[in-house]
Write a structure and sequence with these properties.
The chain is an alpha/beta fold. It has 7 helices and 4 strands. Helices cover 53% and strands 12% of the residues. The structure holds zinc ion.
Length: 161
């Protein structure tokens, strides 16, 4: 598993993420590209304006994670880890085409939730909660904890992932 990035200001964040992700067998053959940009003003992201003020986004056209320097570093370290790992999860979902997982068992869940599930599975629930508490609130965090257990049982027992 390789995390490649273009700016040394991401060194310590990426090292922390890599330390946990490299323990995940499912990620063994994967390369994740992370690109720090000054801002998202000149970037076309999924044909939407919505993403201009996001700290990081998974760019589907290139299947890489782009990070918005003008916003990202206002978040604390835990939140930064959660933000990038969530986008890495989108990349992973996209690369591995997890349609079976999404459609058969998670039809009611959006890819957003599935991405958060992987962030938890890969060992970053504390970091994810630090971010989600701020962006989605306590109810989401409680739900995340409950669903994580249920989803874990489904994934391990039904899909063997
Ligand atoms: Zn997302």
């Amino acid at each position: 598993m390789v995390i490649s990035f273009n700016d040394s200001s991401l060194n310590s964040i990426c090292a922390k993420i890599k330390a946990k992700l490299e323990k995940q067998n499912e990620l063994d053959e994967h390369v994740f590209n992370i690109e720090l940009l000054n801002d998202f003003n000149s970037v076309s992201i999924n044909n939407s304006e919505f993403y201009r003020n996001e700290p990081a986004v998974h760019q589907k056209s290139s299947n890489k994670v782009i990070v918005n320097k003008s916003i990202f570093f206002y978040y604390n370290i835990e939140q930064q880890i959660a933000i990038i790992t969530h986008e890495i999860a989108h990349t992973y979902i996209c690369k591995t085409n997890q349609k079976k997982l999404k459609n058969s068992y998670f039809g009611v869940l959006s890819e957003e939730y599935l991405a958060d599930y992987f962030v938890c599975k890969w060992g970053f629930i504390k970091e994810l909660k630090a971010e989600r508490m701020q962006s989605y609130g306590n109810e989401y965090c409680k739900c995340l904890e409950k669903c994580r257990m249920l989803v874990n049982i489904l994934i391990v027992s039904v899909l063997g992932i």
